Amino acid sequence: MTEFFISENFLDTAVQVYLRDCKIIVSKEFLRCAEIQLKKYFEEQTGIRVTKRIQLGFTPILSEFETHVEVKIHEGVSSLLYNLWFGSKVYFVHMAWASHSLRIYQTSDTDIDCNDIVFWLGGLEQIRLD
Length: 130
What we know:
Layout: H1 11-22, H2 28-46, E1 56-60, E2 72-74, E3 77-86, E4 89-99, E5 117-122
Antiparallel strand pairs: 1-3, 2-3, 3-4, 4-5
């Protein structure tokens, strides 16, 4: 498994941090499927290879006026506004997901079929290596 969000060793911690800091329940299964697909998507869309030196990390955005992060759902597409950490820079992107079966997956779901759910990122056009 690649280290896109987090390594396998830190999945439990990540789940706890999402709940504590963002008031959102995120399952390890959801994170695993997202990690695999989003690394590939990022590399294909930007032409930038994710390595140990160039890593990506995501944090849901929680403004001072919000008490929890809200998953938006529109016409079968779910999304979260995220901070994308790339090197020392931070970008605002949308992490979105939908499914071939039209199932609406929740971030808390543990019975996720990674061949059914599809993840992508909006806002990558702003990412540059410079």
